Amino acid sequence: MKKWLLASAATTLLAAGAAQAQDAKVGVILGFTGPIESLTPSMGASAELALTEVNESGKFLEGVTLSPVRADSTCIDSAAATAAAERLITTDGVVAIMGADCSGVTGAILSNVAVPNGVPMISPSATSPALSNAEDNGLFFRTSPSDARQGEVLASILSERDVSSVAVTYTNNDYGKGFADSFAAAFEAEGGSITLSAPHEDGKGDYSAEIGALASAGGDVLVVLGYSDQGGKGMIQAALDTGAFDTFAMGDGMYSDALLADLGGDIEGSFGSVPWAEGEGTEAFTTLATEAGINAESSYTRESYDAAALIALAMMKGGEVSSAAVAANVLDVANAPGEPILPGELGKALEILAEGGDVDYVGATNVELVGPGEAAGTYRYYEITDGAFSTVSFK
Amino acid sequence: MDFLNALVALANFVFIPAIAYGSQLALGALGVTLIYGILRFSNFAHGDTMAIGTMFTILVTWGLQAVGVSFGPLPTALLAIPFGIVLTSLLVLGTDRLVYRFYREQKAKPVILVIVSMGVMFIYNGLTRLIIGPGDQNFADGERFLISARDFKAMTGLDEGLALKSTQAITVVVAILVVALLFWFLNHTRTGKSMRAYSDNEDLALLSGINPERVVMVTWIIVAALAVVAGTLYGLDKSFKPFTYFQILLPIFASAIVGGLGSPLGAIAGGFIIAFSEVGITYAWKKVLTYLLPESLEPSGLVQLLSTDYKFAVSFVILIIVLLFRPTGLFKGKSV
């Protein structure tokens, strides 16, 4: 036992010594066990792919190699996640954390470990709107958009179409309520008016009372923030049956082929938004990941790659291996102005930064960090024409 | 003109949906009330009996559609209902033989039978999901509308549309036929009279030579028929999803209790009272009042008594008020 302790102490010392010389450790804390354990291997591999790319370019800070250290967030167990993050920082001495994944554990790590130790974290997949207002001392970033963001997107679509008066119905849970609130705030800020915002319960058969009230309140369009296989569909059905509304604006939960199959012809001209990844960056990442044997289509792989890339670029921009450098420069490298950087071009970005230039990291998900450092996200604005979803634009 | 617009808006958003929904609830409540009157327990499995019966009907409908049988402008499912009734009758009779008869012979207390029926409910629940799955099934075919809102506007030149779905019309017509048939059966046939006698006084009925097993069997068959008809109409009008049939159990029980458990007439009245109060009390009167009142008095708010969130509370408030003042329900049923 004593020998083992000594040995491990020695390794730690060695590791710590090495870190000062040439190693910059980046924590990769994801739920490698637990509810999303099927997603995390690809996410972790994508993050490490970005770090490898930086190392192989040979243009990172002189003599420094980035090395990932994995830890398990479990996705649901805040205590375990906090302990794992604590170990990453105190034992492994990571300068920044790529993670965590689920919103709950991410909040726990942020307030219990990251903030007290001053270590920045970039989460690829925590989407809870609550994290936007968390006490983070400027240490928390995310490459996935907050759920609240979509409300703004939908509101901007409506004003683009010159719709100024709408009725809103949302599914009666946290998702629906949060979505409806953020939509209402954004839509009213743009000068629109909401005649009535009424919740609907999922799994009921009869929605005539809800539709009656909404129809009486009036509005040019009915905004449906629900689920396509639940009350959202029921509401649309009831609205069509009574002739109360014939155009619908739909949130991401309503995007499904089943809805089209059942109602397709009747909801011609309706429109909505859904998170979407498309463009040069996405394609570049897919090629890169496929070459490395990673399933690029798995959820949040792109966001993970971007999170890790941002950590590396921010360090480069700050010119030193330190937590402060990362925290201070993430927004700088992620947003304009600067040379746009796609996946696979990290070497080029490092070169520009070394010369004191500016980069605008686009990455696999068109990274644009807004507000308190979270992704604006890309949404597909679609319209239903000829019984199919057709893209109008990306937002 | 304004008056007509107001009337049409009210009909479109309150009367027509509430009458259709009320008919569906009434048919469901009739089944519950018959079981309560004759077998003397609250059958919690009724919602899922409706679900499983509708499932049979849907499967037969699909079969008929596959071989190319159709019912013209009417939904094919109407043709499939008799098959659904036969299959569901066999199922409930089997359940009675296997489960309920044992407790009946033990003279078990009604509360035990209620719990037993919950067990049956879960089994039916699972069976339905195993066979047809938990998702939405769309089985309506034929003409969707008698009059669509758009056509009505074009026809009459009014600002308000009036939509009448063919399924709503079918629901009301079928409900009237079924109820008339049931009342004729209960009042004019020998079996019907023996059922009422058994319900009024079991011992006296037994003494006068009525075969209890036969009464029980006929009751189950009638209940199965009512459940299949109610479930199919509901599924045609809305859509079939096993979970919604589980949820509809509450308003059905509220209807039966408001009307008076054990009273068929009460079940029908209860169904309509619950449906109209759910739709009517949460209705926002703004549109109607805007048409009716002079401009200076036009409401700026929604003029809504209660927000639609309270839809379900409404039926229960009515239930409590009725039970406080008339514990046996509006139509003198048995006390609960």
Identify the notable features of this structure and list them briefly.
A: 395 residues; alpha/beta; Rossmann fold; 2 domains; 7-stranded mixed sheet; elongated; B: 336 residues; mainly alpha; 2 strands; 72% helix
Provide a brief overview of the structure.
The complex is a heterodimer of chains A (395) and B (336). In chain A, 45% of the residues lie in helices and 21% in strands.
Write structural notes for this entry:
Chain A is an alpha/beta fold and 395 residues long. About 2% of the residues of chain A have low confidence. With 336 residues, chain B is mainly α. Chain B has a domain of 227 residues. Chain B starts with a helix and ends in an 11-residue tail after the last helix. At the A-B interface, β7, α7 and α8 of A face α1, α5, α10 and α13 of B.
> Could you tell me the number of beta strands of chain A?
16
The end-to-end span of chain A amounts to 59 Å
- What number of domains of chain A? 2
**Stretches of chain A where pLDDT falls below 50 for ≥5 residues?**
13-21
Q: Please write the string of helix (H) and strand (E) elements of chain A.
A: HEHEHEHEEHEHEHEHEHEHHHEHEEEEE
C-alpha-based Rg of chain A, rounded: 23 Å
Write the CATH homologous superfamily of the largest domain in chain A.
Answer: Response regulator
Shape of chain A: elongated
Please provide the count of β strands of chain B: 2
What's the CATH class label of the largest domain in chain A?
Alpha Beta
Which value, in Å, is the CA radius of gyration of chain B? 21 Å
* Residues in helices of chain B, as a percent range: over 70%
Mean pLDDT of chain B: 88
| Structural category of chain A | alpha/beta
**Quick one: overall form of chain B?**
globular
* Largest two-chain interface: A-B, 29 and 41 residues
Give the overall pLDDT of chain A as a whole number.
87
